[in-house]
Structure formats: structure tokens, C-alpha cells
Amino acid sequence: MLITAQDMFFMPALVAHASELINYTKSHLQADYKLELAPTATKIAGQSFTTFAYWSPSTQLHWRVLATEIRCHTLEFVLMSRDPKALESLVLEMNKLNFLAEANPGTGAYGAEAPVCIRNYASAENVMERVDPVFVEHKFNPVPLRIIIDKEGKVRYIHFLSAFPDQSKAITEALAHWKFKPYLQDGKPVEVETGIMFGRVPHLMMLSDSSATK
Predict the structure, then answer these.
(1) Strand locations in 8-46, DSSP E?
(2) CB–CB of 17/7 below 8 Å?
(3) Could you give the domains of the chain?
(4) How far apart are CA 119 and CA 211, in angstroms?
(5) Is 168 helix (H, G, I), strand (E, B) or coil?
(6) Which residues partner with 79 through β-bridges?
(7) For 55-110, how does the pLDDT look when each residue is reduced to its tens digit (9 = 90+)?
């Protein structure tokens, strides 16, 4: 079993949700693999998953791929065996998993309200005020970060996925002056979690993330 988690804010173009990841994987199978189960929505341990299955006639290996969304990430389980029945048993065993409240969008610890995950929310139409970071040195690395925007549109939390200390300092100081359009849900403002890319943006990111900032 292989378990991976992909940040939905920085995933490649055309892959923003669990179902899209499954469809992308299925459509990019090599020619010698054969489809056993088309992408299908299912429930496992009360959690919504999208799943599909394929196999290799030459190696007699079978794969079952399952994906779900947990707090702004796509979580993927890849099961492999020569015995298809063993894979079905493993999927049934997954019903014993216990997904915490954080697994569900809009729900935080102990049922408390959590920020809504929105990809590309830091795009131009949602930014009302901004200050660009001033870098002491010009480096050529991308700087991906996740932010939480409060109900008033101010950045209240920043998490850098990768950055040099001077970059973190400059970006943090700049974001303190940013003002976003409050996001409304059922007519009420709620907090938003999103991603921003500063610095030199990888080609795939440029295709998929209109919030990229050079």
C-alpha cells in the first residue's frame, strides 16, 4: 500500500480535486495496462472517495487506487496485489479507519469552524490592497506558501512550504498589508485557506495557479 498526500493549492493543471486526480491517472495509464473498474464514487468509513482499478496482463499485478479530500489536500491510497480478491478485502478493511472531524471541509478540531479551502483565492479580483515584498537578494527559487484569511480579509496565518529566511521575512512583512475581499458563505463572511506562489514559478504552476506572483 502506498499513501500520498498532494497539496490541492499547488497541484498540476487540470487536477484540483480527488475525482480529477483519479481521472487524470486513469487517462494516463500506459498502453499495456487494462482498466478493471472505471472511476467510481464510493464511501469508505463515512468519507467520500473516488476509486478505479487496473491491471497488467504481463505481470498479473492488479492495482486499486482510491482518493479523497482532507483539509485542502488530496489523499491517495494505491493498493497492489496479484490477487484481486485480496485488494477487495483491503478496501473493506479501510472501513475501520477513523477520520477525524478535520477530514471534512469546513470542520475543525472538535467540530469547530475551519477555513474554507479555495484554490487561487489570492487572484487579482479578490485582492483589494497589496504590498509587494522587497527582497534583499534576488534568488531564483519558487516560494510556495499557504495563508489563512480572516473574516475581515486580513492574513492571520502564514505557512511557508519552502523559503530562505530572508524571503520569509520579506513576504511576511508584505502580507501584513494585504487586504482581501471577504469570502461569503450563505451570506456570512468566513475564513479562507489558499496558496500563493512567490518568486520564480515552475512551468506547471504557471499553467494551474493564476495566483502566482513574481
Answers:
(1) 34-44
(2) no
(3) 2-111 (3.40.1000), 116-208 (3.30.2420)
(4) 9
(5) helix
(6) 64
(7) 999 999 999 999 999 888 899 999 999 999 999 999 999 999 887 655 555 444 43
